[in-house]
Backbone:
DNA sequence: AACGCTACCTTGCATTACCAGTTTCTAGGC
DNA sequence: GCCTAGAAACTGGTAATGCAAGGTAGCGTT
């Protein structure tokens, strides 16, 4: 039970939330997402991201289309679906509730 | 991939954080903790709490002593250790960082 | 002594993130 | 054409955690 492991565990499930937000703003592919997450200090590796994207696709929350690159292999550009938008709205609420709950517990005299 | 499951996943690792905060305020036993968490709208069941408390004990972050009840079997009253206080301080920082990261991602134009 | 309640604990399952690779595809040099 | 380098997507295997559904034991009441 060390701090780095706890950090990982705290982030569990929040990645899905972050990815949905990122793809809700426009078409991006995996490397773009990693860049954005890294900028926000949420380090993610490819091996984590790809299974997550496949889960989102399989659940109908996200979709993608192949777009050829000017240099290199084609890329999967992801976008959010209508179902994804609705789901994201509930996740926003869940996150708000969670923040309030933690606030309540951590600030109690 | 439904909302309730996501809710569960989002809370992963945060329970440990909450429990440490609760026992840092004084001696409590399991039912007290569940009451406090429920009041904060963090639903927890016994099967989740007891293994977590054993982990905290085994890691030296928390300790307990048996106290007899006026009505019923004796109870384990938990308190935080010095190591637990130090660990809790790092968790406070981790939580702050996490909130900032999510804030950064969810509010980006 | 039989029952119910309380408190503590255990087992099996599902989910998720990480690590360490592998495969596929394109571009460019020989 | 052939080979290498690099980018992009993907794939087991492992570890950690929460949940559901139980089980065990002590205490008081009837």
Residues:
């Amino acid at each position: 039970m060390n701090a780095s492991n706890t950090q990982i565990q705290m982030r569990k499930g929040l990645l899905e939330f972050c990815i949905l937000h990122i793809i809700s703003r426009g078409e991006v592919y995996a490397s773009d997402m990693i860049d954005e997450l890294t900028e926000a200090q949420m380090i993610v590796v490819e091996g984590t991201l790809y299974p997550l994207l496949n889960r989102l696709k399989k659940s109908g929350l996200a979709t993608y289309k192949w777009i050829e690159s000017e240099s290199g292999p084609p890329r999967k550009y992801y976008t959010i679906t209508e179902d994804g938008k609705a789901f994201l709205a509930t996740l926003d609420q869940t996150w708000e509730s969670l923040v309030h709950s933690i606030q309540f517990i951590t600030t109690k005299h």
